[in-house]
Amino acid sequence: MAYLQALLAGALVGALYAALKVRSPAPPPVALCGLLGMLAGQALLEAL
Fold first, then answer.
1. N-to-C CA span, the chain
2. How many CB atoms lie within 10 A of CB 42?
């Protein structure tokens, strides 16, 4: 359920950025790498 909430929050923020025509603070590839790192870290912690 937490993954779904995170996905919805990210989509909401992305929609707000697009609506306000604000540039993202990080380039998309950097942001995606950061998101993948957070997911991997959470999966690692849950596996321990």
1. 20
2. 13
